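Lecture notes, structural biology module. Today: joint structure prediction for complexes of two components.
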Amino acid sequence: MFAYIIRRVMVAVPTLLLLIVASFFLMHLAPGGPFTSERPLPPAVLANIEARYGLDQPLLVQLWDYMTNIILHFDFGPSFKFKDRDVNDIIAQGFPISLTYGSLSFLVATIAGISLGIAAAIKHNSWIDYTAVSLGIAAQALPNFIMGPILILTFTLWLGLLPGGGWNGGQWQYLIMPVIALATSYIGNITRITRSSMLEVMNSNFIRTARAKGLPQRTVIWRHAMKPTLLPVISYLGPVFVYVLTGSVFVDLYFSTGGLGQSYVNSALTRDYAVLLGVTILYGALTIFVNLLTDLAYAWFDPKIRY
Amino acid sequence: MKQMTKLMLTTVLSASVMTGASFAAGTHPTTGEPLADDQTFTYRVLDEHSSVDPQVVEDVSGSEIVRDLFEGLMNQDENGELVPGVATGYDVSEDKLTYTFHLRPEAVWSNGDPVVAGDFVFAWRRAADPALASPYQWFIELMSLENASEIVAGDMAPEELGVTAVDDHTLEVKLTAPLPYFPYMTTHATTFPSPQKVIEEFGEEWTRPENIVSNGAYILTEHLPNERSVRERNEMYWDNENTIIDKVVALVINDENVALTRYLAGELDRTEVPAGQYPRLHEEYPDEAISFPRLCNYYYTFNLSDSGPEAFKDVNVRKALALAVDRKIIVENILAGGQPEAYTFTPEAVAGFTPPTVPMAEMTQADRDAMATELLAEAGYGSDNPLSFSLVYNTSEAHEKIAVALSQMWKQKLGAEVELANMEWKVFLEERGNQNFELARGAWCGDYNEASTFLDLLDSQSGYNDGKYSNEEYDSLLEAAKTAEDTTPLYTSAEQILAEEMPVIPIYHYAGVYMMDSDVGNWPVNNVEQNWYSKNLYKIAE
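The predicted structure, tokenised, for the full assembly:
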């Protein structure tokens, strides 16, 4: 197990490096730069600014400086747009917000999805099953950019119950709509996967054996059927966790949460290179880490898997 | 001989006479309106501001905050006229090259230090200093301060800048050209003072709420990037007793429709009206939906450089395209927010500018269409040889609607084949700046309230002249206007040249189209630059 983790981490490092190098060059390939503006800067001024940020150096030198700063000082560089903040500040400020929304949405989607899926499978072909499946499909058909406007119009404008956006120190009223908007579409998928997995497990031989032993239904489900049912769900949940964090981009923009999504999109539009790279690296590292966790979780859920 | 510029001393006097017990009684000192208990003004901004450092800030939303946090030599009133700020007034020398500003002794920073002439000297040098590399370095050059260009280019030390502190309360400024609008430039954020001690102590982080020291009517108390920024009454401000609004909250809301919903739900006091929604909102909320002229133009520019199409080198083609644009449809059916139709490059709202009568403006659309067909035929284009070109604009729903409408007009009236292409903003700027286009969208908002801020764009030497229009007579008119006593005939001639040569197609001039809570008092709708100061606003009790 330990050797496996070491092996994975050793693969992760070159993966991240590759991600940084590729993003770096792709970013510089896009036309325009951080200081391209409708009001072109006089050459002397532009030269001053570029010199200050080291943008007058050859790309390879810039890449080298960037990498050494990260490795030696854990410094992801300055923001070109926001003069009083560097990338570390921007991430330190926005990431906890995105993480809050992401984790809450993940919890909501997982709990709701698994419960609906299990209920549907246990009461197969009953009204509970049909309702759960319909709810799941409806949820899947409501991506966050549809849910956002529906929620705001309903709860902010018509009912006047919830504030239409913002963070305001993370008060619960401000969290509800973004979390629902973000979680909805995943509930559908999780329901579907859980249901079909549970149905398959309930028809397998070891469940028949458990029943034959005379175990009550409850024990059969919780003790024996649960773990194997959740295996395919887990493999789906890993990416979902990353999706809700990165997918919070829309929610961040729409509900003005102050989360990292806004910085991500805006830095791409304004060519704020260091911010864009910093957030890309963060999301990349997170993806690699969550995938590792998912793989380790397999071992716990499935006795057949050993690392 | 020095000539004392009489500066609204009366304004100051009358303002101080009127202050007093009235706020406690809850009524406005001059209008007598009942004041709300909660004097908080909340408004929407589209994007996070770049900075609140006066010498660094480059965007409108940042400048709005900076105008509240800091105070420059002069301020603007509700009509955009100059009123005293930190300076009580100024003298100007006979040759108009030396200005002497007199600073009020009672002005202090939020930490209690006096605001002195040295603070301005420090700030102006800082703005010019290549070490700061401010994106607004060019503004110091534009002000024509002595040695500004040399300092910006790095050939001279910032200490050589033509600004000196004669004593703590006297600031002397030396110019290289007698700019008639120089005093107005001191209302721009770049010229506001900055606190040397604080900047030296905290470096770039001096503008954070926990570090910042400012001299305006408000201090920055909270800032969550991309979410909100809050400024609250500065008790140390010299005119604090006349400030009514206690707290100003700027909320970042990217989506204008969400902003409108949140406005309607009562979360905001001000937001922009999305394009096309003004008529409906104005009918439903007549007191809240407001529209007023702005200092911005919207135009299409021909690529007249060597890389541009041959057809556009023919003035008849350019005129035909300009004539065939039915501006009424654009402003009434697409924008629908009270925007004026444009036949001149400079908006009519510009101070001291009377738009010259250009022939196109006088004609009916039917006459224009007939003339357009005629001119295009003269240029050799018709059904057998249709004119075809491409039009680029930056990606946006409103720009797309206008581009589609115009291409339809040109197709129906002139048989022209127009290929539309949209590009992401930075790509668009890069392509347009490198003359990789045929016809391109353009828009400009004035940096100051004078026609040259627009007309300079088409000067052959201008860095913003993406269409590479060049006309010696036009250039010399603008050169003469820089020092002329009466600029009106010069600007009129310049506009007439543009109307004759049509290097750009003016389409419309902007309007500020807002939803503004009727509780907000004294919003400066007549200030075309929309330089508003929270200290002049108030909230009326409902």
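Point to remember: Residues 206 and 212 of chain B are 5 Å apart (CA to CA).
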